[in-house]
Amino acid sequence: MAKFVDYITKASGAFWSNFFSFFGAMLLLVLVLAVLIVVASFAMAANYGLGLILVLLAIAAAAVIRASIYGMAAEALKKGKTSIGTLFSTFREKWATLLGIEIASAVIIALPLLLLLLVAGGLPTSSSYAPAFTGSVSIIVILCIVVLAVIIAVLILLAIPAAVCDGTGVIQSLKASFGVAKSHFASLFAMYVTFTIIGGVLGLIPVVGTIAVLLLIEPLATVAFTEFYLKSKA
């Protein structure tokens, strides 16, 4: 399990060697998302339906741009250097696949959780809904939901690196991620938890912490998970 430290170490070298490229990519992501949200807000004030559509488009665009940064990560690891131009080329060539993976991942995570809630009697059926489970049972259900969500998230975590590195489609990328993650679950889980905890702690710091997460932790994690996939898929 300690191998995850080696992946982070290798990723750190590739990240810092291309710091300004990743900085520019994340800054672009933030700016694009900010502009889209502002436009959607104005549109929603005039027409709620149109505004809602624009919000969904903004989320989709931001998700694909974020996923395209994995293209930069792969190039940095393979060639030692990358540029923000790789983000644009990855976006242009793979946007449909990346968007498909994002949507499929959301569905894969959501459906089992909804099913678990349904079985536990935790889905609202009316405006006067009262949960069917209370006390220790509700705590157990919540813990099961959290554990299940984390396990699923880790198993499909490498789908985007697979699509970017191997040029596979949505289903093939998800299968590749599941195969690699299942075989190296402990190391991948440790890496996932490490970045989640670091990001969560920094996120508690107003402004500065959020900036650090966006411009440092997020791109570093991207490179680390890409490195993990490239080294573990064999």
Observed structural traits:
234 residues
**Helicity level, as a percent range?**
over 70%
Number of domains: 1
- Sequence stretches where pLDDT stays below 50 over 5 or more residues: none
Per DSSP, the total helix count is: 9
**Main structural class:** mainly alpha
Multimeric state: single chain
H/E element sequence: HHHHHHHHH
Mean pLDDT: 86
Q: Biggest sheet, in brief?
A: none
Binned strand content:
under 5%
Instruction: Tell me, briefly, the overall form.
Output: globular
How many beta-strand runs?
0
Characterise this structure.
The protein has helices spanning 3-17, 19-46, 48-79, 84-119, 135-155, 159-166, 170-183, 185-203, 208-232. It is built from 9 helices and no strands. The radius of gyration is 19 Å and the shape is globular. It has 234 residues and is mainly alpha-helical. The chain is 85% helix and 0% strand. It has one domain (3-106, 157-232). α2 packs across α9 (208-232) and α4 packs antiparallel against α6.
Task: Give a short synopsis of this structure.
This protein is mostly helical and 234 residues long.
Secondary structure blueprint with pairings:
Elements: H1 3-17, H2 19-46, H3 48-79, H4 84-119, H5 135-155, H6 159-166, H7 170-183, H8 185-203, H9 208-232
